[in-house]
Every structure is written in C-alpha cells, then in structure tokens.
Amino acid sequence: MLNLPNTLVLALLAAAGSVYAQLPRPLINYPLGLSPVFDEGFFAGTAAPSATIVQWAPGKAPQACVNELAWNNCLSGRAVVYNVTYADCPTPWIMCRCDNADLSIYQMTNFFGRMPVHLRSTVRHVIATHGEGCSAYAITGPDDGDIVMQGNCNTQSIWLHETGHQLDARGLGTGVGFSTSPTFINALWNDTCVADDYGNTALWEEFAQMTVVSQSHVIYGYIQQQQYPGCFDSQLNALETAFKTSHLTYGGTCHTRIPATPTVNAVWKRGRIDRRGGKRIGPCKFDHLVAGHKH
Ligand SMILES: *[C@@H]1O[C@H](CO)[C@@H](O)[C@H](O)[C@H]1NC(C)=O
Ligand SMILES: *[C@@H]1O[C@H](CO)[C@@H](O)[C@H](O)[C@H]1NC(C)=O
Ligand SMILES: [Zn+2]
C-alpha cells in the first residue's frame, strides 16, 4: 500500500482540484458550437496543396491502423491503406480507411491538406471508419499521434479540433500537454468564457476548440460573431503566442515528422481488441455541424 503523509495527500488533492476547478466557465461565446460560425470561412479561405495518392497492395497496414480499425469493428481484410504525398512535404502521410468508411480518401486528403503543413506534422496516421453521424478521437501518447474519424466528419472544424489535441500534446516538444500547463490555465482563469459548451467539458477540449478559433483568426485576422467579444482573449493570446508562428501559419515545408508505425499483416480476429496503452482523447462529439464539400 502506498503510504503517503496526510499533508502530502491533501496537497496532491488540492493541486488536482485547482486544475479542474477552472471549468466550467460561466459564459459561452458560441452557443451553437463552432461549425456554424467557422466552417464556411475555412472552406472559402483555405486550399489543400496538390497531392498524390498511392494505394497499397492489400494485406499489409501500419500497426497503428490495424489497432484502431480492429477496435472500430472494421472486419479483417477491409483495411485500405494509402500514401498521401502533398506538394509541400516529400514524406507521405500514411492514411488508412475501413473500406466502408464514410469519408473517401479524397475527402481525407482534402480536409487534412487544408491545414498548415506544420500543424499537419503533429499527426502520424490519419484513420477513417464507418460511424453514425460523426465522432472523432485523437491518440496522444508520446509513441502515438494518430487521429481517427468515425463517420461522416466532413467539416474542417472537426479536423482542426482533433489535430488540436495533437498540437496540445506535442506542440512544445516536451511531451507535456499545453492545455494543462499554468500558461493555459492562468489564461483561462483570466477569461470570462469558453469557446462553446464542448470546451467547458475539459481543459484539453477547450484548447482544441481554441485551436479552431485561432486558425480562423490567423486566416482572417479577426474573430467572427462573438456573443461576448474579447471574453476568451487571454486563451487566444496564450495559444497564439505558443503556436501561431510554429504551427498555425501557412507556407513552408515539413521539417519534423513522426515516423510511421511498422508495417504488419492487416489481419485480425473479429472483435479482438489489441490496443497499446496510448492515451485516447475522445470520442469528441460535435453538434450543429455544417457540412463542407463532398467529393
Ligand atoms: C509508401 O511510403 C513509404 C514511406 O515513404 C514507402 O516506403 C513505401 O514504399 C510507399 N508505398 C507505396 C505503395 O508507394
Ligand atoms: C489577464 O488579463 C489582463 C487584462 O485583461 C491582461 O493584461 C493579462 O495579460 C492577462 N493575463 C493572462 C495570463 O492572460
Ligand atoms: Zn476533443
């Protein structure tokens, strides 16, 4: 049994409590969520670089894809794997779909490609499966870096949100989540609102939603349709000070990429759950989605 002095236990409880006491915040800047406010602007204001898509021969897949597809009830033998190579980065992103995924590889390539290359570089594998509606999650352990779209996640704000979880986990390169650092917590405490109701559920969800807001801010130079103008400016400033130049600015080429997981046989037993201990954030749920393009 772990035998800690009572004072130390109390100190640890107080420390944990102070983190979580930051939420919920009293005001919501976007009561209907971010999609109705920002997705039109992302669609109009961004473009994916040209990309080549090469499908792998059947039978093999990266280990992380096998883990997530199996866990998402994709039947063995239905994994489809692609190298997606964008014009701004010579190393492909290896993307995987279950063959009944709602998103096509063209949609995956397009939504992912509309983000700046340095933001994309916080992601290892991009994975899509079939699902009702859309939910999504990010795997953020130090040996991970994958994002998984479950269902028809055809809006840019969701892709930015999930990639925002990777930015949170890896952006500083220290393996420490920015959303739980004193910098972000103090900024949140200084503010009177969160981005939306979903941001009120956890520090990392608020950070991911603020990544969406910040990316729009970088593109347009102002913040649209705020209920309480300026109410999240401290968070916005903290996030942009840390990551605007390094990750949210367009242009340049990739300089750090997370190596792909080893190629293995894409065969698994039905219902077998074989996942390593990576930290999974989500499933993230989104309301009032405004669909982007489809092709
Ligand atoms: C996919 O990309 C990897 C890494 O660059 C490369 O080793 C592999 O040969 C490529 N596969 C195909 C089918 O192009
Ligand atoms: C808190 O707000 C004040 C005034 O609005 C601002 O000057 C200060 O930089 C903020 N602090 C943080 C940590 O964001
Ligand atoms: Zn999330």
From TrEMBL:
<feature type="signal peptide">
    <location>
        <begin position="1"/>
        <end position="21"/>
    </location>
</feature>
<keyword id="KW-0732">Signal</keyword>
<protein>
    <recommendedName>
        <fullName>Conidiation-specific protein 13</fullName>
    </recommendedName>
</protein>
